[in-house]
Amino acid sequence: MSFRLAAVLSILLPTVLLTAACAPRQDYRGITIEQEKLDLIKVGQSSEGQVNALLGSPSTISTFPDWGTVYYYISSETETVAFLAPELIDQQVLAIAFDKDSRVKDIKRYGLKDGKQIAFVDRETPTRGKEMTVLEQLFGNLG
């Protein structure tokens, strides 16, 4: 009877471990703002300090001070299966714009559907110098 038990365990244990290893893993990053806290912020009335005290430090702040300050609260959810690259499931961006008097001017929410894919250029910038083959590099190191 113990031989049968060992045989069954030798088949079941690896199967259970492999199945558990392939289960998707979800990761949450960033700052998720609850609607109740957001409702306390009033356009034209709330100040930058009040927003900071209520919601905490933003993920990032706009870099165009001439147009007014904008706080961005960013959160994302990704899912990873086994060894594959993570897949973006959801992303939320809360943008709170302030006027010159540091009062809330506008509040906007952006989701995953509002984002745009950017095509990166994979060209390389040429540098000065000589293009060498593998053999030239090998023999060049000898002397």
Strand fraction band? 25-35%
- SSE run: HEHHEEEEH
* N-C termini distance: 72 Å
- Helix tally equals 4
Summarize the structure.
The protein has four helices and five strands; from the N terminus they run H-E-H-H-E-E-E-E-H.
Task: Please describe the structure with a list of short key phrases separated by commas or semicolons.
single chain; 143 residues; alpha+beta; 5-stranded antiparallel β-sheet; 4 helices; 27% strand
Report on this model:
This protein has 143 residues and is an alpha+beta fold. The protein has a domain at 24-121. The protein contains four helices and five strands. It has helices spanning 2-21, 35-39, 48-55, 134-140; strands spanning 25-30, 60-61, 70-80, 87-98, 104-110. Strands 1, 2, 3, 4 and 5 form a five-stranded antiparallel sheet that branches. A hairpin with a 5-residue loop joins β4 (87-98) and β5. The model has no long low-confidence stretch (mean pLDDT 82).
Layout: helices, strands, pairs:
Elements: H1 2-21, E1 25-30, H2 35-39, H3 48-55, E2 60-61, E3 70-80, E4 87-98, E5 104-110, H4 134-140
Antiparallel strand pairs: 1-3, 2-3, 3-4, 4-5
